[in-house]
Structure formats: structure tokens, C-alpha cells
Amino acid sequence: MAVYQDTITVSTAAGRPDFIDIKQQVIDIIAASGISNGTVTCQTTHTTCSVIFEEYVHDTNWQGQEFLQGDLIRFVDKMIPREVEEGRDYRYPGPKHVQFLVDYHNEHPEFPGEANTILNGDAHLRASLFGSSQTFVVTDGMPATGEFGHIYLVDWDQNRERNRKVKVCVIGE
Questions:
Q1: In angstroms, what CA-CA distances link 145 with 39, 40, 55, 59, 93?
Q2: How far is CA 28 from the centre of its chain?
Q3: Which of 46, 106, 171, 172 is 20 to 30 A from 142 via CA?
Q4: Under 8 Å CB-to-CB from 123, ≥6 apart: which residues?
Q5: Burial degree of 92 (CB within 10 A; 0-12, 13-18, 19+)
């Protein structure tokens, strides 16, 4: 039994939920692991992101989102509307959390200090619903995603672009 770990880092856009197809990077990590049969787990390290398994759709809208992704966003927007102003739809973030983030920014200036970047309660709720990870069976060095299945990192936080990470762990022989 062997264990191999690696990290995928991607840049995400601002202004809308962003879907990044990471299937090829996962396949490359499995190949680098030398593991032919076992499992691979893909887990985001961010509380406003999800890893999902979905069909690749060839058609895209003007923003470059696959039609199925746009449909998913419209569905989720009805359940969990975007947080656009403080105290309107969400209690998050509360005053203690805001103070924590101000103090954190003071100690880590690379962390944004603009108040609007923490109006992301919707992103936290969406990520909680969709989950942070997916696990796939690995057979003959390939993840069992079927003919059309792809692995996506979804950044639900629309407030700013940033770099996001997905930890990948391959276990097997």
C-alpha cells in the first residue's frame, strides 16, 4: 500500500462563481504517484469552495461557463442569494468575526482588508451544501469518472479573484 499527496493550485475569477476543470491535473498526479489501483481524494482547503463531479458540457455562455454550470448557479441563486450588503439577508459576518478579520489583516497585510470581501456568507453556505471533496476509485491508473465526467473546483466566493488549492491524495498499489 502506497500513499502519494500533491497540491493543485488554480486562479479563480471575481464577479461570479468560478468552475475550474481539474480532471487532467488529477490524472497527472495519479500517474506521478505510480499507483495503478486504489482511490484518489480531491479536497479543497477553502471554506468557500467545493469539489464536484459533473458532466463536461461543450456549450458555454458568454462568460465562458458551461451551460450546466450556469443552470446550477441559477438554481443555487434561488436558494441562496448572493450577499451584497451587510445585514440584509445574512447575519454573517458578525462583529466579533469582523474584528478578527481586521486583526488578521493587520498581522498579514497580504490578506485583503476591504470590508466587502467578507460579505460572502452565501459562498460559505453553498460550499457547505456541495462539500469540500470527492473520492474516486482508481483503476489502471485512471480515476473512475466515466466517459463524460469531469472534476471541478468551484469557487463560490465572487468577491475577488484569488489562488485556490486542492489537495490530492492517492492511496493504493
A1: 12, 11, 9, 20, 37
A2: 19
A3: 46
A4: 48, 155, 156, 157, 158, 159
A5: middle
pLDDT digits (tens, 9 = 90+) for 20-78: 999 999 999 999 999 999 999 999 999 999 999 999 999 999 888 899 999 999 999 99
Distance CA 156, CA 96 (A): 23
Query: Do 27 and 76 share a domain, yes or no?
Result: yes
Supply φ then ψ for residue 73, to 5 degrees. -60, -45
71-125 tens-digit pLDDT: 999 999 999 999 887 777 888 888 898 888 889 889 998 887 777 788 899 999 9
How many CB atoms sit inside 10 A of residue 166's CB?
27
Three cell numbers written together for 136: 474516486
In this structure, are 43 and 10 located in the same domain?
yes
Domain count of the fold of the chain: 2
